[in-house]
Amino acid sequence: MLILHVETPRTALVPADAKDATTLYRLLLKLGLHSLPPLESFVASFDNDWVDVQFVVRARQSDETVGFASLQGLDPAGHIQAGIFLDQERAGYGVGGEAMMLLMNYAFTRWGELRKVYFMTTDASLARFGAMSRTATREATLPQHMFFRGRLWDVYIYSVRRQMWEEQGAGLLSRLIDGAPQEEPEEEYTVTRWVYFVESVKWLARRPFEKLRNHTGSRI
């Protein structure tokens, strides 16, 4: 039986609300996105109904907000899309991997009918997601799908299935909560590895998998 967790010794997921919108906007600007609307429009759209849950990612040691995370597009077919991004200069070692594990565990614990959770990234091998590499499967590659910082990037779509999470992921998370170190390299997070998570979050006013449907004509 899964247990709901929202924090480890160094990482916490805190429910986000409209007061966090300006902080998020500034972080997206720092990451170099070019598709942001004006700040007023961004703040007005912060509570979009089709995002199922959204969190501030907080580093517990400093109690700083270092990123944001969301779950969106809960589908009757039993899947949902996860989005997460960080300020790599402030997040610190391991925070991103732990935030993703907490987000996955939240999804499977909250929705008993959920079969799998999708997430997207660019220019990254799954090993760089630390312990997540043991539970995620690459389901699709969209070649040269995103233009960012002067070049085209492949987009990789991964999924974590419930059975795999229950058999492996939940135990890994429990050990982290008990204080076991996470096996991640110091250089784990760069902008390019996380930027497509930003492209998928709700405040850019795009429905989940819209780009994927444009390529395939159907939803996963």
Automatic annotation (TrEMBL):
It comes from the Bacteria. One of its GO terms (molecular function) is acyltransferase activity, transferring groups other than amino-acyl groups. InterPro entries: Acyl_CoA_acyltransferase, GNAT_dom. Pfam families: Acetyltransf_1. Residues 47-124 form the N-acetyltransferase domain. Transmembrane segments: none annotated. This is N-acetyltransferase domain-containing protein. The lineage of its organism: Bacteria, Bacillati, Actinomycetota, Actinomycetes, Streptosporangiales.
